[in-house]
Amino acid sequence: QVQLVESGGGWVQAGGSLRLSCAASGSIFSINAMGWYRQTSDKQRELVATITSGGSTNYADSVKGRFTISRDNAKNMVYLQMNSLKPEDTAVYYCNADIAMSAYVNRRYWGKGTLVTVSS
After folding, report:
1. CB-based burial, 22-59: b 16+ in 10 Å, e otherwise
2. How would DSSP label each residue in 31-46?
3. What is the pLDDT along the chain (120 residues), one digit of tens a residue?
4. Angle CA 32–52–96, to nearest 5
5. What is the DSSP string of the chain?
6. What is the spatial distance between Cα 30 and Cα 115, in angstroms, rounded to a whole number?
7. 115 contact partners, CB below 8 Å, separation of at least 6
8. Cα 2–110–63 angle (5° rounding)?
9. Which residues 6+ apart lie within 8 Å of 100 measured at CB?
10. Residues 77, 25, 105: CA angle, nearest 5 degrees
């Protein structure tokens, strides 16, 4: 089995920073793309940022210049540094990873989410 566990969420005032972490564990052969998504109660889950195994990144327009995604392949970790936070960044943030359990089998996994609350 594979698990993704997020940490680092919490409460912060507008303009502040938070750093989210996500650890992948279990029967992992390799990890391809990893990413962060977020969801509020009245919206669908949306992409925040993704990063390939080679380090190429992609960001939602709403977070470009404020958020930075990174990963540590040796530790099977992905991070999201969030700066200049705004109230509209308030959401549950989910870690996602495309994980291969063997050379022939891979699937996408989701973490359970971590809540980020930004007050004005």
Report:
1. bbbeeeeeebebbbbbbeeeeeeeeebbbbeeeeeeeb
2. EEEEEEEEE-TTS--E
3. 899 999 999 999 999 999 999 999 999 999 999 999 999 988 899 999 999 999 999 999 999 999 999 999 999 999 999 999 999 999 999 999 999 988 888 999 999 999 999 999
4. 65
5. -EEEEEE--EEEETT--EEEEEEEEES-SEEEEEEEEEE-TTS--EEEEEE-TT--EEE-TTTTTTEEEEEETTTTEEEEEE-S--GGG-EEEEEEEEEESSSS-EEEEE---EEEEEE-
6. 28
7. 9, 10, 91, 92, 93
8. 135
9. 28, 29, 30, 31, 32, 106
10. 105
Show the tokens assigned to 94.
């989910």
* Of 45, 38, 48, 33, nearest in space to 98 by CA: 33
Q: For residue 115, which of 38, 47, 33, 45 has the smallest C-alpha distance?
A: 38
CB within 8 Å of 61: residues ≥ 6 apart = none
